[in-house]
Amino acid sequence: MAKSLSQAFAANFLGQAPQWYKWSIIGFLIANPILLYTVGPFITGWLLILEFIFTLALALKCYPLQPGGLLAIEAIAIGMASPETVYHETVGNFSVILLLMFMVAGIYFMKDLLMYVFTKILLGIKSKKLLSLLFCAVAAVLSAFLDALTVTAVLISVGTGFYGVYHKVASGKKPHHSHDATNDEEVVELHRSDLDQFRKFLRSLLMHGAVGTALGGVCTLVGEPQNLLIAEKAGWNFIEFFLLMAPITMPVLAAGLLTCLMLEITGINGYGSELPSAVRKVLEEYADDADSKRSMNSKAALIVQGLVALFLVIALATHIAEVGIIGLAIIVLQTALNGIVEEHQIGHAFEEALPFTALLVVFFAIVAVIHEQHLFSPVIDYVLAMESSVRPVMFFIANGVLSMISDNVFVATVYINEIKEALDAGTITREEFDKLAIAINTGTNLPSVATPNGQAAFLFLLTSALAPVIRLSYGKMVWMALPYTIVMSIVGIIAVINFL
User: Both 291 and 214 in a single domain?
Assistant: First the structure.
């Protein structure tokens, strides 16, 4: 029977998303204007945040850009935020947008090198506990000197490569065959249990690595975007920043790495899965086949990628330019020196990051609502009114909780500006300002691992093309991050109480 026009409109709305999901979004869009004029902008603003989190939590049902974008457009249309404020928030985070546009694409052109190196590591280290600890520790060290999003892009590229290699074999295909790694219909029944265990194995490694980016990112001036902002307001250089944060960050780093080890030993919260022997055999065969068939051109390309990777590390560590500009430089170097000169060859590199970049701008629209409706003001005012002796720990907790809900960069920006104004007005001393700035930095960086919306790197992983195929949902990320959240928050609070 032919569809009516109304049925066609209904089918097209949010595509393949379940009907209950579509009706939920429609319900939000109908309710928001009514709530605005009945209960006011403050309550409606908080409900809008929850609605947006709903779209993130169900990212596997529908990519959050479309439903989240509809909510953001409506919020602007009914006057909860202005286009100018959205633009201001976007411009304020332009360095992050540049990073996503160019650095992630730059990492794409390193995939052969990354697969070569990480295959050797994966096959060389038989112990899952040691491998997990290595992923977490290396991600922490790299994030301290590079950038959490860049490190996450590397983890996603490696995970996608490993998954694609085995999924193709599990589907009964040869290495040279074309293949869709998102489709399980061709997976041979014999391989399904191994594929499920391999998904668990990859999920655990990626989560250890993602948490590692938070453990390292908090330590240095260049680790996270808000670190630079806080250091600028406080007048701290690289060494000063590291030393001032160390009494909090070093105990948390040690506790985080110990937690990584304990999770693999106990196997709780989705951890502990070993690499199936059948998968290891496939990866070993893949590595041997790739090594035997590697041409001189391929070897030259690997050498170029290695040299460009070295340039990347030095450039990011010394911060010779904005991260996104460095990313553009490595795109140019790798494509020019490796014979990639056609537009369509380059275009594939941008497919992963640009949808997330668009989603991030939608997120800034929600942040604009938080800003214009002063949704966090009661919490800020309440903490600032407390006794000076308890302010550092309360700042840590307040920043942590708000960062779980919102964006940690935005929360840090609001709080550091507030205490800078208090310092300039003579309300607080310089010593207290330093303590509160440390509490803000650690508070926004550490407890925010609780949810994917807390950190851009986590959100990037959740909305990547890899997340659906390894069954990494919002709820799964929250559940797997929970032990880390508890340990890092408690150790952080104890350190703040004792050292600030």
Answer: yes
Strand, helix or coil for residue 289: helix
Following DSSP, what letter does each residue of 420-435 receive, concatenated? HHHHHTTSS-HHHHHH
- Interatomic CA distance for residues 154 and 108, integer angstroms: 8
Question: What are φ and ψ of residue 246, in 5° steps?
Answer: -55, -40
> Using an 8 Å Cβ cutoff, are 191 and 148 in contact?
no
Contact in structure between 151 and 142 (CB atoms under 8 Å): yes
Residue 110: its H or E element: none
Would you say residue 432 lies in a domain?
no
Q: Name the residue range of residue 54's domain.
A: 16-80
Looking at residue 224, what is its pLDDT?
79
Rounded Cα distance between 140 and 217, Å, is 7
pLDDT tens digit sequence for 169-189: 776 666 555 555 555 565 665
The count of domains in the chain is: 2
Task: Output the pLDDT for position 246.
Answer: 94
* C-alpha count within 13 angstroms, C-beta hemisphere, residue 324: 13
Q: Of 133, 127, 205, 214, which Cα lies nearest the Cα of 162? A: 205
pTM for this entry: 0.82
DSSP 340: -
Runs of H (alpha helix) within 104-147? 104-108, 111-124, 128-145
Q: Give the closest residue to 436 by CA, choosing from 244, 255, 250, 254.
A: 244
> How many angstroms separate the CA atoms of 169 and 172, rounded?
5
Helix (H) or strand (E) run with residue 360 in it: helix 353-372
Pick the last residue of a domain from 335, 353, 371. 353
**CB neighbour list of residue 316: distance below 8 Å, 6 or more residues apart:** 145, 146, 147, 150, 222, 323, 326
